[in-house]
C-alpha cells in the first residue's frame, strides 16, 4: 500500500493545490493521501482566512483522505521548524511511504537532496556566518550561502517553496525517515504575485477579497468556493487591536524573553505601536534585517507569550509531535486502522481523551490557546472549540 504525505496550509485550497494533489497521487501511485495542515495560524504568523475545520473539509472534498493538524509551535514558525514538525508527524504515522512537496524548478530540486545534507555541516555554517557579516537580511545571506555551496544561481533560493523543499529533505535526513521524497514543479503564481487568474496564489485571492471582490470562484475549485463564499474571512488586520493593547502594556525586558526577539528589536516594537495607525506601525517596524513574515510571527509570539525559554524546553524534550485528526473520508477507515496500529506518536481523535505531559503538553496548551484566540478574531466565539468540535467526516 502506498500512502503519500503532503504538507499544506490550504489558505484557501486553490487550483494550484488541486494540481499538486493530483500530480502527487499520479506520480506516487498511492492508495491514500494524508495531509499535515497548519491549524488556525499560518507559517507567516497570520490568522488563516477560515478555521482549520473548514479548510480540512475543503481538502477532504477535493481528494485528501486524512487531514492532521500541524501544532501551532511548528505551524507558526520559521521554515526549518515548520518542516521538521510536519515530517516528524508523517514519519511517525507508520504507513506513509512518500512525501510530496512543491518546488519552483523540478531540475533544481534534483540537486536539493544532496544539498540538504550540507545544511548540517560546520562548513555551511561557516559560509553562512561570513555572509551574515556582510548582509543584514538573513534570507538573503542564506540564499547566498546556499548558492555558494551548491553552484546553483542565488535566485533558486529566493522562492519560499524551494527553501521549504530543502527543509523537508533536511528533516527526512535528520529523522532518518524512509519516506521517498517527490518534488512536484509548482503550478501557479508566486506568493507576492497579485494577479487573479485560474492559478492565482493564496495571497492574491485573500487580497482580492479584502479589496471587496466578491466572486472569486474562478481562482479555486467550485466545491471550495461553495464552502467559503459566504463566510467572514479573517485577516491579519483583525489582530491589530490586540497588538496595540499588548505592545502598550509590555516592557522591553519582557519582550526580550519572547522567542526570536533579539538585537534590540524590543525597543522598535514598543516604539512602532505608539501610533494609532496599524499601517504606520508596520512602516516603523519594516527593515532590511527582518522579513515581514518574521516580524509578523514575532508579533504573534508576543501576543501569545511564546518565550525563548518555552521553545528551548520544547527542543530539550526532543521536539515531540502528535497526530491530531481534523478530518477524514469514510473510505479511509482502513488507513486510520493502520495508523492506530502502527503509529509511533499519539493519535488524537477526541480532544477530551488526550491527557499529555511534558513537551506534548506544551504543544497541546498552545494549540488550545491559538484556537481560543482565533475564535475571537473569527466571530467573537466561545473558548474550548477544540473540545467541542470533532473530526470532519465526508
Automatic annotation (TrEMBL):
Q: Reply yes or no: does the keyword RNA-binding apply.
A: yes
**A GO MF term:** ligase activity, forming carbon-nitrogen bonds
**Reaction equation(s) it catalyzes:** cytidine(34) in elongator tRNA(Met) + acetate + ATP = N(4)-acetylcytidine(34) in elongator tRNA(Met) + AMP + diphosphate
The listed locations are:
Cytoplasm
In terms of SUPFAM superfamilies, this protein maps to: Nucleotidylyl transferase (SSF52374)
The EC number on file is: 6.3.4.-
Q: Which InterPro entries match?
A: Rossmann-like_a/b/a_fold, tRNA(Met)_cyd_acetate_ligase
Has keyword Cytoplasm?
A: yes
Any one GO cellular component localisation term in the record? cytoplasm
Alphabetic keyword roster: ATP-binding, Cytoplasm, Ligase, Nucleotide-binding, RNA-binding, tRNA processing, tRNA-binding
In which broad location class does this protein mainly occur, judging by the first location in its UniProt entry?
Answer: cytoplasm
Broad EC category: ligase
One BP annotation, GO = tRNA modification
Q: Which residues bind ATP?
A: 7-20, 102, 161, 186
Per the similarity annotation, which family is this? Belongs to the TmcAL family.
Tell me, what does this protein do in biology? Catalyzes the formation of N(4)-acetylcytidine (ac(4)C) at the wobble position of elongator tRNA(Met), using acetate and ATP as substrates. First activates an acetate ion to form acetyladenylate (Ac-AMP) and then transfers the acetyl group to tRNA to form ac(4)C34.
Task: Please identify the protein, giving its name as recorded.
Answer: tRNA(Met) cytidine acetate ligase
Q: What is the lineage of its organism?
A: Bacteria, Bacillati, Bacillota, Clostridia, Christensenellales
